[in-house]
Every structure is written in structure tokens, then in C-alpha cells.
Amino acid sequence: MQPQLDQLKKILNEVADLSAATSVLSWDQQTYMPEGGSEDRGDALATLSGLAHTRFTSEEVGKLLDDLSTGIDQLNPDSDEARLIKVTRHNYEKNTRVPSEKVAEFARVTTVAQSVWARARAENNYALFMPHLKKIIELRQEYAGLFTPYDHIYDPLLDDYEPGLKTADVQAIFNVLRPQQVALLQAIHERPQVNDNFLRQKFDEEKQWHFGVDVITRFGYDWKRGRQDRSAHPFTIAFGTGDVRITTRFEPEYGGSALFSTMHECGHALYEQGVNPAYRRTPLSGGASMAIHESQSRLWENLVGRSLPFWKYFYPKFQRTFPEILGNVDLMTFYKGINKVEPSFIRTESDEATYNLHIMLRLELEIALIEGSLDVKDLPEAWNERMHEYLGITPPNNKVGVLQDVHWAGGMFGYFPTYALGNLVSVQLWECIQRDLPNLDDQLARGEFSQLLAWLRKNVHVYGSKYEPQELVQKITGSRINPQPYIRYLQTKYGEIYQL
Amino acid sequence: MQPQLDQLKKILNEVADLSAATSVLSWDQQTYMPEGGSEDRGDALATLSGLAHTRFTSEEVGKLLDDLSTGIDQLNPDSDEARLIKVTRHNYEKNTRVPSEKVAEFARVTTVAQSVWARARAENNYALFMPHLKKIIELRQEYAGLFTPYDHIYDPLLDDYEPGLKTADVQAIFNVLRPQQVALLQAIHERPQVNDNFLRQKFDEEKQWHFGVDVITRFGYDWKRGRQDRSAHPFTIAFGTGDVRITTRFEPEYGGSALFSTMHECGHALYEQGVNPAYRRTPLSGGASMAIHESQSRLWENLVGRSLPFWKYFYPKFQRTFPEILGNVDLMTFYKGINKVEPSFIRTESDEATYNLHIMLRLELEIALIEGSLDVKDLPEAWNERMHEYLGITPPNNKVGVLQDVHWAGGMFGYFPTYALGNLVSVQLWECIQRDLPNLDDQLARGEFSQLLAWLRKNVHVYGSKYEPQELVQKITGSRINPQPYIRYLQTKYGEIYQL
């Protein structure tokens, strides 16, 4: 079967090259491209994606996979080769099941929907967006229908972001998590509140930039295999393990914005930089799933970057960097400030104690939309009711409510839960790390991250997408994705901050 | 024939998209890519080029061109459609005549040769490079042989850079030009020399950058359709007419370096920004040839940027920008300084009066190498003899002699003459512009370039590569490429500066 495997790899290499080229064009589009480049860039991106799709979904690939499926039993099922064939087969099935007219229609409909959504949000006009959302839901239902039999119609959508994960699994996890987070939030609400006014002012951007660079350099971000630029929305993008770039942005009215964003993106980037180089130009490169990726970004952003040990080391430097602002703010006041809990209408501005509630609300609604048990016309009301139930606040308008995120306009049903799952996984891993590195807090308090990074490299990063997310979490932690560690973490952390 | 034409355009659009993507990857490689990205970038570039080549040289394209060749007689031969078919046919012939093993072999041999050349130059070791050069010449001879019958074996090589131009044409032009430039140089040599010591010091880079930006903004460079970055070697690159980027660099010991480089690249970029947008994503986009492109860069760099009227406007600003350096240097001293004539060993450092001599020397040698009348082992001696004959100086070593340029190591036989032809064309155009805009000098002296740019847009830029270079020059100036205007220009300009 070696000749077939070699030929398959050759094609996968070409597809990976096209995908890397697409990523370079996309990075450039979001960082440096002048506005005049839009039209040609759109055409070039469409051509590259089309060629990659055509090449990957060719009959030749199907034939090679069929030939290889007979020989796969002779391989160790845990070998890179067997896994490469398995992952490729999974992607091939998903990509070939959809007629190309449908792929094109979905691209067309979501492109229009995104620009209508932007206007609808600006004008606080849900009715404008509603028919587009309705059409997208129909198309997603139709898409899911191509993958019957399934346990739940949402399964094929979820699988696009979390291979192998089932709707029932996620619901079971969230049903345990939700009441605990709601109860915690109520308990916090009854305690004296934290002051973070000192953060809500202008911090010099140049200094923020350099501070962030210093921090992630200590984390272990390899600047010979990456760089940081500015963009409207921060992101991480990999063109292979040798070139993994991040971006950041500055919010004029919040001092920590660029720093936490930089640490977050660095977490994603360390993952990509750490994938086994032997997987380059194959589907095994890159992260295992969105949730596993998010576990890495949130681990560095929150479990490291919002922890007291981290700031024991970095706060004196941060204070010296912004003496006029922080000269009279002591470490504990600062630490509490950056961890202030406050229900917000906006997901992207929410803290660790409330973030998952935003996600659970969205997941419940999108499952109901896809199931057909919720009509799009009733969506804003359902949104606002749940906001009140989970977070105790009611959006004054749809702009800061149901219209706030681009995901549904982009057709990305199945994406939202990965944010919350990433949070859960980050703490599951963290408990293992604390067991394996008993003096981890001391290391963080000395600004030392090399053992932490080495642990992640060895246990998570190196595997790329060889394993499905549940498999990987099981392999590392001994259990599947599980909300208990995260609940414990929140209770301990906020128990101390709010003296619960 | 419309369906065939539409299908041909569809394929050409895809090929253009792949080529634009290649250019974005290449721009990134030369500006921002971290060193770790090299390996994957090399693979991605090879895949994109390969796909573009395969798509363009497919039998389908050949069939479409054959079908269209029967209908082309019904088209106006000067119509965009007829020209598109003609240009495409020409490119198709050139690309399909070469077996793909030969394309790959040439890429391999020149890749190795370029790295050997870099070492040979560093070590002043021509013998190290010689066998590689010998092999490249053999491959170029073999390549030329695929295009028999020809008038001269160098014709097919020249045609790669200057479609339709013949070796005999270039030789005839240069045979007139050379003795005149040699005589001028001798006359200058006998006069008191110009002092430019004030330029040979460190000028603040930030200030140089901003001055250059101000100048080209006035030229009419459209920043909404372009940007400037830094790179080791300045270049211009277009991803379509809507995104045409330039780069610049700073030499530590010469004040004007970045400014003249910026004006030069801006000249290339104005050309690309001015091509008819209807030609986008087809072979009619981009410049007509290397020489026509160079005519645009040299026009803005030299005929504008080294002229007295230009500096009448800009010198007071330049002086205010660098008051410590230029406070006591008056306009005429400065003007003479930037136009100092001084035979140099190095082509890229040479002035307007000597530059073409460097080119003619190279052209004569490369024709002799390709003809087989000069053996590679005798090349350094032939180089040094001609340097003495034309420029009156003898290189002390091969490092600053025959090993100075990368072109031969890259297999770019046929490229050198385009630099000198560009100079000639720039002045042919300039004479027409002076006729059409009689108060051009006054405009330049007021910092006004809009009429000049409009003239170039209308007469040169808009046509893209619809016409072959000789055709285009004939159409605009009424004669083919001709050395007399350039000779007149040099005699007048340096007659004044050196009081000949």
C-alpha cells in the first residue's frame, strides 16, 4: 500500500500548499492590504479554495482511500499513517457528500447575509436580517440531512468543528455546568463588588505592545517562526509550523486589552508551533479541534495570565511601565480588577465567570433553530429571556442582544459551543499539569514558563490533529470532557476574590 | 467564437489568480516572513507555479486558441479581444514548447547556481561558479534551439523579456549609442570634477522615508491601491491594478539612496496602477515588457527626479529636512552632486552617463557566450578588457567584476539589455511629452505632476501589454526604439553640468 500512501500524501501536500497560500492571502488582507486590493483578492481566494476543494474531492483521492482502507488493518491503528488515512477519510466524506452547487449556494447566501447582518446590527433592525437567517438555517438543515443517520440533526454541524463530538455529550456537560455557574454568579452578586476603574483609561499603545511582546517571549513564543501585527480583530494563523503569526489590537478605553489578547493568541500560536513537524503539509497538522485550540488560548490568557502567581512576577514591571496610572494600585487591587465579574450584554467583553453562560444560551438557541422547535421570529425574545435567566440582565435592544455576533450570519452553526468547551478543557489540563508540576505556581511567580510549555508540547501540541478531541482529552486526563474541574476552578478563584 | 473566448478568459482568470497569489507570497517572503517560514513557503510557491503552468499549458487552452484562430480574422486586429488572443497564443507557444522536465531541470540548476554564485562572489572565486555557468549556458542554448528557425540564437531569449524584439535590432541601437557614450565620458573626464561628499553621510532614515512618501504622493501614487515597505532589494509588485506595492531600502552611507529608489519603484507602480482595469485577470494586464517598464521607472527617477526643475521645488524642503547636512549646500551644488559622473565597477551604483555602458558590455558578452564564440573560462578577462575600453577602469577582482550580478546565475540571459533600452525609451517619451506639454519644466518646478502622469496614463499605462514594445514605442513616438534622443539628452544635461 506504500505507493498509494505516497500518492495520497502528494495530493494532500498540494492541498495543504493551496490552503497555506489562502492563509497568507487572508493574513495580508486583514493586516496590510490597501482597500483597492479587495476585488482581486476575493477572486484569488475563491480560485485557491476552489482548486483545493476540487483536488481534495477528486475521484483519485476516493480511489486511493478505498485502496488504503483494505490495507489499513495491517497498520497499528495508533500509527501516524493509520491516523492520517482515518482523518483524511473523515474529511473526504464530509467534503464529497455536499454537491458543489450547494457549497457555492451556501457561500453566496452567507456572504450576502454577513453584509445584511452588519447593516441590521448598525440599525438595530432584526427584521432586516431575519429572512437571511431563516434561509441559512434551511441550508444548514439540508446540509445535516446529507449525513443521516445521526443521533441528532445538530451532530453533523457540531462535527465540523469538533470531530466525533455529539450534541448529547455537549448538552449533558452544559446541563451540569449551567446551574453551577448561575448559582456562582448570584453568590458573587450578593457580595461587595470589585473596583476596576483604574483599568478603564488610556494606556500608551507602544508600551502595551512591548509589554505584551516581553510576556509572550517569556511564554516561549518563537519569533523566528512567527510575528505579531495589528488587525481589527485579533487572530492566529499558521502557514505551517515554521510560520505561525498572531495579531493584536488596542481598545482605547481598557488598559489590558492588547495584553490579554496577545496572551490569548499566543496560546493558539504555541499550539501550532508545537505540532510534530513530520505532519507538515498533511491534514494531521494544525490543532485537533476548535475546543482544543481554545483550551490552549484560554490556558495562557486566563489560567496563566489572570492568575495571582503570574502577576506576582509581572505586576512590578507593569506598574513601572505605567507609573502614572498604576503607581498607587497595589497587586491585590490590580489582580481583583482584572478578574472583576460583571454580567455584560456582550459575549466578547465578558469575564471567566459569565462567559460560558453566553455560550450556553447561544447553543440552546441554535439547537432549537436547527431542530425547528424555535422559529426565527421568536429568536430575539428567547434570547432576551435566557439572558435574564442566566445573567440577570435584559438587553435594551437587539444590537447588543441577538445581533451582536457574526457567527450565524456566516452560517457557523456548531461553532459557539467550542468556546465554552475550550474553557473546560483548559482546566482539565491544568489539574493534570499541577499534579505533574507541583511547584507550578512558584515557577509562574518567577516568570518561568518552560516546564509548563514543555508539558503542553509533549501532551497536547505534538499530536496535532491526530486524535479527535474527546480521545485526546481522555488520553491526557483519563476522562472525557468534563465540567467539574472548571466548576472547582471558578469556585476557588472567585471564592477568594469575593470572599464567598 | 464567443463561447470559446469566454472559456479561454475563464481559464486565464484562474491562471492570473494563481499568479497574483504567488506574488502575494513572494512579497511577504521579501518583507515580513520570519525565517522559519522558508521551507513551507518554497513548497507553496512551487505548487502554485506548477498549477498555473499546468492549467495554462493544458490541451484545452491549445484547442481554444486553435478554434479562436479561425475566427480572429473577423475581429478588428487592434481590438482588445484580438490582442488578447495574440498575446495568449504567443505565451502559450513559449510555454508549451519546453518539456516540463526541462523546466524543472532549469529551475533546479539555477537554484543551485545562485547559491554557488553567492559563495563564489563572497570568496572572489570565479572558478567555483564557472561549471554552473557553463551548464546554464548549455541549457539556454538548448532552450533557444526549441524555437528554430530564428535569425539569431539569442532571439528567443531576448523575446522572453522583450516580445518581438530581435538581437540585430538591439545590436544596431547599441552600436550607435556606445561610441557616443564613451566619447561623452572621456570629455567629462577631462573637465573639473563634481563634488558630492555632502551626500556621502548618514541621513536619518525616518526623515528619508517621509520625504520619499511626500514626493511620490505628489507624483500621483495612489496609496489606496498600494503601500510601501522595506526590503533588502527594492522592488515593485502588482496583485492587480488595485494593489500595487513598492519597497525601498536605506544605504547607510548615501543620503539619496532611499529617495531615488522610491521614485524609481513608484515609476513602475504608476504604470501598473494605470493599466486598463478591463484587462484585469488576463495576460493584457501588467506592463508591455521589461524595457517599457524600465522606461517608466527611469523617467520618474532620472528625467524627473534628477532634474533641476524638480529640485527647484523640492530642494528647499529637502534642505529644511536635513538642515545640519545641507544647510550650506546651495541648489546648484546639490543638483550637480546628485548627477556626478564617475565610472564605477558596479552597475547598480552607476550614474546616467555610464549605466548603459555596463549594460552593453554585459549584452555583448552574453551574446558571445550563447553563440559559443566566447568560452566561460575567458569571460573574466573579456569582462575586464571591455570595462577598460568603455569605462576606462579595470576591476581589481572578479567580485566587483564578472561576479557582481545574480542574473546569469539565475539563467536570466536576455534581461540585461532591457535596462538600457528602458533608458532610451524614457527619453523618447520625454521628447514627446515636452512637445505636448511645452511648460512641463514650469510644472515640475511648481511640484505639479498631474499633467505628466495623465500623459503617461493615456499614452503608455492604459495599454498594459496589449502591444509589443516596438509597436508601442512606434505608436507613441512615431519611431521604433532609437538611441538619438538619449544621446541628445546626455549631451545637453552633462554639457551644462560639466561645461563641455
Automatic annotation (TrEMBL), chains A, B:
Q: Does the keyword DNA-binding apply?
A: no
The cofactor note reads: Binds 1 zinc ion per subunit.
From which domain of life does this come? Answer: Bacteria
GO biological process terms on file: proteolysis
Which residues bind Zn(2+) per the record? 264, 268, 294
Cited InterPro entries: Peptidase_M32_Taq
Q: Does the keyword Zinc apply?
A: yes
Keywords in alphabetical order, please: Carboxypeptidase, Hydrolase, Metal-binding, Metalloprotease, Protease, Zinc
Kindly give the CDD domains that the UniProt entry links to this protein. Answer: M32_Taq
Give the required cofactors: Zn(2+)
The main enzyme category here is: hydrolase
Q: Name one GO molecular function term.
A: metallocarboxypeptidase activity
**Reactions catalysed, as given in the entry:** Release of a C-terminal amino acid with broad specificity, except for -Pro
Catalytic machinery residues: 265 (proton donor/acceptor)
Q: What is its EC number?
A: 3.4.17.19
Q: What does this protein do?
A: Broad specificity carboxypetidase that releases amino acids sequentially from the C-terminus, including neutral, aromatic, polar and basic residues.
- Similarity field: Belongs to the peptidase M32 family.
Protein name (database record): Metal-dependent carboxypeptidase
The species this protein was found in: Longilinea arvoryzae
